[in-house]
Amino acid sequence: MAPLKEKVGIAVDMCGCPNACRHCWLGRAQNKRLSVQDVRRVAEQFRGFFAPGQAGSAVKGLVFSTCFREPDFSDDYKQLYELEAELSDGRPARYELLSVWRLARDPEYAPWAGRVGPGKCQIKFFGLAETHDWFCRRKGAFRDSLTATERLLEAGMKPRWQLFLTRKILPELGGLLELAEKLKLRERVAALGGEFEIFMQTPGPDGEARKIEHLRPSVEDLDGIPEAIVEATRKYRKKDTLWRTERQWYQEILSGSDRVTCESFEYPELWFFVTPDMDVFSNLSTLEPWWRLGNLESDPVESIVDAYLSNRALGLETIYTVPARALAGRYGDPDGRLVYDCREDLESLYVARHCQDTYAPA
Question: Which of 65, 139, 142, 303 is deepest in the core (most CB within 10 A)?
Answer without folding.
Answer: 65
